[in-house]
Each structure stands twice: as C-alpha cells, then as structure tokens.
Amino acid sequence: MNAFEQLCYLYGIGAEFTKYTGETVRFSKETRESALKACNVDFSSDQKISSLNYQLDVKPWQSIVQEVSILNEIDPCLAVRIADVDISFFIQLQIKEFDIALELSLSDGEISGEYIDDSVRYIELQLKLNLTLPIGYHNASIQFKGNYFSTELWVSPDKARSFNDAKQTGLNVQLYTLSSEQNYGIGDFGDLKTLIKSSASSDFDFILLNPLHLLFENEPQRASPYSPSHRGLINPLYISIFECTKQAAFSKINSEHISALEILKQEKQQQFINYQLVSETKYKLLKSLYRHFKHYADAELQRKFRLYCQVNSNLLSCLKDDERAKFWQWVANMQLASCQQLCLQSGMIIGLINDLAVGCAKDGLEYKSNEGMFTQDAEIGAPPDPWAEAGQNWGLPSLDPKKISKDNFAYFKHLIKANMQKFGALRIDHVMNIRRLWWCFKVNESPSGCYVYYPFEHLLAVLKIESHLNNCSLIGEDLGVVPPEVTLALEQSDIYGNTLFYFEKSCSGDFKHGNDYRNSCMLMLSNHDVPPFKAWWNYDDIELKNRLKLNENNDVNTLKSERNIEKHRVIEWVNKSNISFNSSAEKVYIELVKTLAQTPPKLFSLNYDDLAFQTFPVNIPGTNTEYSNWRRRVLSPIDAVLSQQKDLLSEINDLRKYND
User: Fold this and answer.
1) Class of 168-658 in CATH
2) pTM for the whole thing?
3) Rounded to whole angstroms, how far apart are CA atoms 309 and 316?
4) How many helices (H) and strands (E) does the chain have?
C-alpha cells in the first residue's frame, strides 16, 4: 500500500466493489482522487499526503483516550493507548456526573491492539471498570503522568430496544394521500387519528408513515418526502387545522377554516394533489393560526410554547428568529405526540413508526445549517444494478465521513433523537448508509462514483443508545446489496430488516419459500417504490410507463410476457386451488396476503394502497417531472377502506396468532 492508497483507506475511500454480476470492479486513481477532493482534502504533494496520514493514523495512538470512548453497558471497559514503556503507570478516571473517581492500573489492562511508529510500540489496553453506568453519553476526565485528558463515554447496550416477541400486523401508508371532509387536500394528523382508531379496531399493532420531514414552503411542487429541507423538523402541512379549532385559543379561525374547505372542495375530488393550491390555502390558515395564538392564547399556553423553544433550541436554531416557523413545529409535535398516545391507548403494541430519509436537499435548512458536515459536489446514489445499469444519482449531498464526528457526532445524535421522539419505532431508509454510501461525482466531466465508508461502530452505537433513551425500536431498510458485516451487526443489535415480497427470489427467479424468510424483519408485499398490487396484476404499471414513454426500448408485449411469468410464479407460490392465472387481482391479493401472514417475520405490514385497491402508483422511481410523484390520493374515506376489508383483516390476525 503506497502513501496515496493509505490516505484513501484512512479517509474511507473504497478501493473496489463487487458488481451485481459478480464482477469485481476496482476504482481508478482518478475516481478516488475525486472523492478526496469532494472532502476538501489537499493531497497535492507527497509531503501533504504524509502529513495527513500521520494525523489520521499515528497521532490517535499518541493520545491516551479518544474524544469518544464506547463502553459496553454490561461489561464496561475503557480503551486507552499508551507507549508500552508506560505499562507500570496508573491513571485516574473521574466522572463528575456520578461523583465517580477511580484509580486504574494500566498493567491490569488486556492488550487489544498495537501500533509501531519510529521504533516506539504503542498498545491499546482494555481497562475493566467495575461499575454500572446508565445507557447514554457521559463526560469523563483522565489524569495520566500529570496531564489531563477528556473523553465522552458512550455507554452502549448490546441491542437496540427490542420489539415485542409476538407477531404483529400493521399498515404502511403515505399520510398525505388520505382523504377526509376536514383536511385541506392532503392527509393530516387529524386524518391520522381517524386511521389509528380504524386500525386499532382491526387489531393492528402499528402504522408505518412516510417521512414527515420539513419540505419547502415557497416551492410546493417539491413534494418528495425523501428529498426534504430538514429531516429533524416536521412539514407544517400535516397540522390539522380542524383539530386546532377545537382549542379555545384558535376557535375564532373556524370561519376561515370553513372558507378554505370551500375553496378546496373541487380540488379534493381530483386523483392528484394540486400542491400549489393546497399549499397556498393551508399556509394562509397556518399564518392565521399563529396570529390568533399571539392575540388569544392564555399565559399558560404561551409559557408552554416558550419552554418548547428552550428545550429544543439546538434543533430550532436553523429557523433563527422565525417565531412563526417555531410555533408550527410546536403545534405539529403536539399533534403528533397526541397521535402516538392514541395508538397506545387504543391497544397498539408499537403505534407509529417513523421513516428517516437517507439524506436532505442541498438547498434546504438542514444542509445550510450543517454545511461543514457535508462534502463538496458529491451526491448520494447507488451503483449499477439490473434496474439501473448506469447507476443512480439521488441528488442528495453526501456527509463527510470524518467531519461527521465533530463535537462527538452531535449532528447525528440530534438527527436520530428528533426522529425517534413520539414514535414507537423508526425505519431507517437505506440503512447501509451507516457503513457505506455510493458517492456520485464527475471525473473528467463524465459521471463516476465509488463507495465511501463511514465510522460504522460509532453510528451503530448512537442508534442503539438513542433507541433506549427514546424507547424506540429500529428497522433498517436493507433492500438491495448489503455488506455482510452490516447484516450481521444489525441482527446482533436486534435491529429488524425490511423484506419486500417481490424481491425475495431464489437464483432460479422463483419466489422464495415463505419459511425461508427471516424472523426479525418487517415483511411487506409492496411499498412506495413499487406499484400497488392491483396495478401490478393488471399490467397497469406497464401501460402507464408506456404512455409516459418510460419503457425505453422495451416492447409492451414483451414486458407483459415477462409479467405473465411472474404472475404464474405468484400463483405457484400461494398454492391455493381457488385462484388461478385468470383470477381477479382482488381475489389473488386476498390469498397472497393470507399466505404471507403465516410466514415467520415478526412484523407484517399491509400497504394501505393495496387495501384500497389503487391502480396508480404513488411514485415511479427514476422519474421527476415525467409523472406526478408523491401526489396521488386515495379518494375513498379512511373508515371505508378498512371496513370493506374487515373479514380479511380479521382472518389475517387469526392466522398470525395461530402461526406465532
């Protein structure tokens, strides 16, 4: 390994990867140089490369402790690094938070690593701490040879907060697609309460939501919840104005509320959301809501708002002096908390499951307020695969693998905490990002990319710690190519995976036997990136893509012939005599989900779109303006969707319990 390759290794810049074809692809020097440039790393001379390697490789061994020390909750050991000639010394450890002062003999430590530089042998020792510390982050100081050093002790559990052992059933839904008389053209937290009550009456244990992240008030057409302005803040459009009118401080806006509903009456009957009209109308009411709060809220309500701003000052700092925006966050958080409380009161085991998007938009608040954490001109994407031979660029800025550790990973801690509060579980989109991400950038003006690796041990520790601190279980969306070390670590950490029926196939192309599904995962027939089952069975997605000219060079009849093979495989997999290739989508769906319900996964999620027998997808991956992504409504009333499936849902619950 030469000096440049060492620098790439130390900075996490990958050397190679295995393509979906099984071929090993090595990244060119130019590609790896571009990745370093994106991190603003100056490697213009051998001297600078040597200096960087020294800082990243040697210097950490010359400090007795690192800025962060990860301790196991059950068997805490402190890692220290010393020159081996100092093995006879003692250190003094002080944790003021708990009034703890210990003297530890270095000679009692167990050697866990070594490094030799310029004839000096450095060793890493694990010093056993005979004490019990609570899960969390605790400041500590160490005295060694007359000098003082500080470290943040991360007391981490072996596992994230566990799910209940019983098999559980629930829904996955895009909240904005819900329809009701009182909403403003997109589903809101009032509609979520209606869905919660209806779901609870069907004995559901959870509702998985789309990311609720803050989008762009002044650019309502940017509707994707997966390209947000800020992942720690909530989209104010989810606030239920109707719920607010029930409070005394806001009762005077009821007439404005009724007028707004009349303005949107025709728009709400359309299949696709007109975000321009909906957003303009609703933000007008949200602004009025704030004005009424300033004029009519009593002292106690005002005090609660100020307290919220104080407690969440770090998160809200990106809003600067915009009190109105902070007020919307307060109201949204109160309504969301009320929804989770309703879930638990209604008997749900988990309640709401949040979804954390893999990144944020480069012109959004999250990026602008944390710009130092991100790279220059490198964006998140995916390497070539059978569905995208040229790879994918998702257009989201990449986090710098070194700068993310600033202030003891404060940015990542705050992000995870904000997305766990008020939820029973958190789904992490593209969970592989805590280990590695595919970066997209240009090399000699041509698109290129490579894998870049992140501080996996630290990011995983934050997930597990925050999981316990916020009483929130974890699901990692691990669809696609997943490094084996990630799969193993998630399994050992009790972080569930995410299984999609369509993707569970054997080498022959047949669907895997249901008994081969893993236990610790959330099983879904479909999600937001695949068409609803009715559309899939009836070829509606193929016809839609053909009308939109998205089938590239593929003939429609060829695509339908390929789909016919898949349909036959579904019939064979279900293996029920009462359905056949010519059966209706509704009939096949019923038997398919009943069969899936009997498989091993502990969590089974039904897509609300499938239960409502939707024919339009909510999203077509790889498109932007070609299709109205993130806008398609479910026009049926919420109660009607679940009540018409009452018998099926009851049978699914019985099957789940019987096969538990």
Assistant:
1) alpha beta
2) 0.96
3) 7
4) 21, 24
In tens, the pLDDT along 492-515 reads: 999 999 999 999 999 899 999 999
Q: Is 88 helix (H, G, I), strand (E, B) or coil?
A: coil
User: What residue ranges do the domains of the chain occupy?
Assistant: 3-58, 63-156, 168-658
3-class SS of residue 340: helix
63-156 and 168-658 have identical folds: no
**Region for 308 from its dihedrals, namely left if φ exceeds 0, alpha if ψ lies in -120 to 50, beta otherwise:** alpha
Q: Is the dihedral of CA 120, 126, 131, 132 positive or negative?
A: positive
**Residue 394: exposure state from Cβ atoms within 10 A (0-12, 13-18, ≥19):** middle
Q: What is the pLDDT of residue 229?
A: 98
Residue range 170-194: mean pLDDT, rounded:
98
The pLDDT tens digits of the residues spanning 321-336 come to 999 999 999 999 999 9
CB contact at 8 A, 356 and 430: no
Helices (H), 270-383: 275-296, 299-311, 313-316, 323-345, 365-369
Please give, one letter per residue, the 3-state secondary structure of 639-650: HHHHHCCHHHHH
Question: Domain 63-156: which CATH class?
Answer: mainly beta
Beta-carbon contacts of 23 under 8 Å, excluding residues fewer than 6 positions away, are none
Q: Name the nearest CA neighbour of 205 among 179, 238, 172, 174.
A: 172
Tell me the one-letter amino acid at 605: S
CB-count burial class (<10 Å; 0-12, 13-18, 19+) for 115: middle
pLDDT at 387 over 80: no
